[in-house]
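Why does residue order matter? Because the sequence determines the fold. Keep that principle in mind as you read this record.
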Amino acid sequence: MVGEAAPLPFGQDTAASLAAVVAAFPARPDVAVLSGDLADDASAEAYRRIRSLTADLAGEVHSVPGNHDDAVGMYEVLGGSDDLRLVRLSRSWTMLLVSSLWPGHDAGRITPETLAALDEALTRTKQHVIVCMHHPPVSTCDDAYCRIVNAADTLSVLHRHRRVRAVLSGHLHRAFDNHRDGIRFLGAPSTCRQLTHGGVPHFAPTSAPPAARLFELHSDGAITYQTVAARYAHAG
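Structure:
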């Protein structure tokens, strides 16, 4: 979560940590995706601050809403308006931005209408596809908070289309790289703090620094990446 004037979760100044990650990028990417939970209070001021901090990050900057976001307010400041958006990345790749925001809930849900639109968009495209959403449809955490409640329906749509190469998500504050039935599921690290899951309390911060992932999409459908971390680490 970023954009707040005062230090927010875990005593972290989230705007400063985001700025530190942006400063660590070795080169300007063609496209950046902000993977949700962008503003804890979902205020226009916070989204304007995010826009300022990421304005020069990439040639294009896109975003998907997380459970802490207000989708309407976020879209008004950062652009976009629909729960499904298609972005042509190159001659070989298409990106689909999908809202998993379930208003009033921390878990995710993709509406039947959005799933139908996703299915239709995947049917039309002849390119390799990368799908971006906030909540992971294949989670590395079994807590209800960490899931898409209709993950089975979501995966059914994704697995019908052999051109889907990967699904990128945020939400968990932990990086992961898993495969399931031919699709790669990639979790982004947090530009705030990385978390462990499953203890008491369930979430606990780690000493790993704020970070992001920098992906390269190859014309044959392969994906490689590197982790871009702020040049400092938190105390444990």
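The first helix runs from residue 14 to 24.
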